[in-house]
Design a protein that fits this description.
single chain; alpha/beta; Purple Acid Phosphatase, chain A, domain 2; 6-stranded mixed beta sheet; 12 strands
């Protein structure tokens, strides 16, 4: 059994403290093998916001794989954006922007889809695509093969088409061929699960997360996280857990079975 707690778009600096505590409570109760933070960890990439994120990660006391989002690069500090865009990120979360986590049942590969020359949009290079594909091909038999990026690669609603990752089609073709099971993302604060290729739903899945704990919720969608559980021959279950204000806790609201 492999379990992943997928959090995204925490936007520390706009966090709701009761929701942060509820996320920590959920992590303690589930004790996942890995907690994924798929970008926009802070609101404006400031030192204090990264310090709050660092404290949150320390309180998790669990393995964490984090990748940057566009909000984790300074926006208003143009000198930092030009000369040292990931300085505060690295100071708080470590120097590796594309980390890899591996155990007997899981291979998770982080991809940095941000670029300082783009304010919001994400982009992936041919070199990144090849690196991830090569690492996927090196997975051991039985490992769940996961790629983590901030920007989405498939949209559920038409208004999000403009938010899709630049370079996604060659990336998805290469990673599907290399055997990817799940591509986890965030950015648009809309949770959903879609097949990588609608014509071949057994060929990998997109798992998008909402905003885990910030005030920047989308429409009527509350703060939410994903719990991914895989084991045996039954594939994986992706559960969406929403924050219930009355209970001060996250609770499951939806479950999707995805084939492997």
């Amino acid at each position: 059994m492999t379990r992943i707690l997928h959090l995204s778009d925490t936007h520390f600096g706009t966090e709701r403290k009761p929701v942060v505590e509820a996320a920590l409570d959920l992590a303690r109760a589930l004790a996942p093998e890995l907690v994924v933070l798929s970008g926009d960890i802070t609101q404006r990439a400031r030192r204090g916001q990264f310090a709050a994120a660092r404290k949150f990660i320390e309180r998790l006391s669990l393995p964490v794989l984090a990748v940057p989002g566009n909000h984790d690069i300074p926006l208003f500090n143009v000198f930092a954006r030009a000369l040292n865009p990931y300085g505060n990120y690295k100071r708080a979360l470590g120097a590796v922007l594309e980390p890899v986590f591996e155990n007997d049942g899981l291979l998770a590969i982080g991809v940095n889809t941000t670029t300082p020359r783009r304010r919001k949009d994400g982009e992936i290079s041919a070199g990144q695509i090849a690196r991830v594909a090569q690492r996927l091909r090196q997975a051991r038999p039985g490992q769940l093969r996961v790629v983590v990026a901030h920007h989405p690669v498939r949209a559920k609603v038409e208004s999000d088409l403009s938010n899709l990752l630049i370079g996604r089609e060659p990336a998805l073709a290469a990673w599907t061929q290399a055997g990817v099971d799940l591509v986890l993302g965030g950015h648009i604060h809309l949770p959903y699960v879609l097949p990588l290729d609608p014509s071949a739903p057994a060929g990998g899945w997109i798992v998008q997360a909402g905003t885990a704990c910030s005030r920047r919720v989308r429409g009527n969608i509350p703060n939410s996280v994903n719990v991914i559980t895989c084991g045996g021959e039954g594939g994986c279950h992706v559960e969406r857990w929403d924050y219930a204000a009355g209970a001060h806790a996250f609770a499951p609201v939806d479950k999707t079975l995805v084939a492997r």
